[in-house]
Design a protein that fits this description.
Layout (H helix, E strand, L loop, with lengths): L1 H5 L4 E6 L4 H11 L3 E5 L8 H10 L5 E4 L13 H11 L5 E5 L3 H13 L3 E8 L6 H14 L3 E7 L3 H17 L3 E6 L6 H4 L7 E4 L12 H11 L1 H8 L1
Parallel strand pairs: 1-2, 1-8, 2-3, 3-4, 4-5, 5-6, 6-7
């Protein structure tokens, strides 16, 4: 997973719940999905054995485990202690985990568990209302790095092209100091970020099969086709 994140070729992640895991895992692999994001917070059942069975179904693909807090748009219904224990069970079985910077109670525990198993720790920030000032966003990135993030994810709602440029500036700045970022501009105006922010260094772009999980997402077929068109190295990898 670390090598994939650092090879400069866009990665496409698709989110999955626990519906028909084996069938959907096979479809994802056949379609060319790079990363399976397992949205455990959306699972019908979250007992450890069930969750790990879903991970096993996707074993042919790099797996990112996300247990999104309701404070940042997720559907997790358990306690923070239960969420931490599930992260600890997942850490040795997946290639990456995603934990929100705002999840102060369990943030350090999740990162510690990830480090113990050489699992990539993505520390994320989501703002579904607006795009904060550059200084505030940079402070988020700096805090996430200080907390131990391998990758920092910043996803904000944009209302104008100037918001998109503000997010792009984070990627340009990160390129100079080696910070690994995933940056997403949500909303219709931000759809361009799903295809072109990887050119500025955003490590993963998110797509979907069926129903979108975030404002402004493009479906997998469209995303895949555009990436093959604009990124020759991506096209070569998928043609191999």
């Amino acid at each position: 997973m670390r090598a994939l994140l650092d090879d400069g070729i866009p990665l496409v992640a698709v989110s999955f719940d626990d519906t028909d895991a084996e069938l959907r895992a096979h479809e994802a692999q056949a379609a060319g999905v790079d990363v399976a994001e397992l949205r455990v917070d959306r699972y019908a059942r979250t007992e450890t054995a069930h969750v790990l069975a879903q991970v096993d179904a996707f074993k042919a693909l790099p797996v990112l485990a996300t247990l999104r807090s309701p404070l940042e748009g997720g559907d997790w219904k358990g306690t923070e202690a239960e969420r931490l224990e599930l992260f600890r069970a997942l850490a040795p079985r997946v290639q990456a985990v995603d934990i929100e910077l705002s999840s102060r109670e369990i943030l350090s525990g999740v990162i510690e568990a990830a480090r113990a198993h050489d699992t990539v720790a993505i520390v994320s920030y989501h703002n579904f209302e607006f795009t904060p000032a550059t200084e505030e966003l940079q402070a988020v990135i700096d805090e996430a790095k200080s907390a131990g993030a391998d990758v920092v994810k910043v996803s904000t709602m944009v209302e104008s092209e100037s918001d998109v440029r503000r997010l792009a500036s984070l990627l340009l700045r990160a390129g100079a100091d080696g910070t690994r970022l995933i940056v997403i501009a949500m909303g219709a105006t931000g759809a361009v970020s799903r295809v072109f922010f990887p050119a500025l260094g955003s490590r993963i772009t998110y797509s979907f099969f069926g129903a979108s999980s975030a404002p402004g997402q493009l479906d997998f077929t469209e995303t895949f086709g555009l990436l093959r068109k604009f990124y020759p190295a991506f096209d070569r990898r998928k043609s191999a």
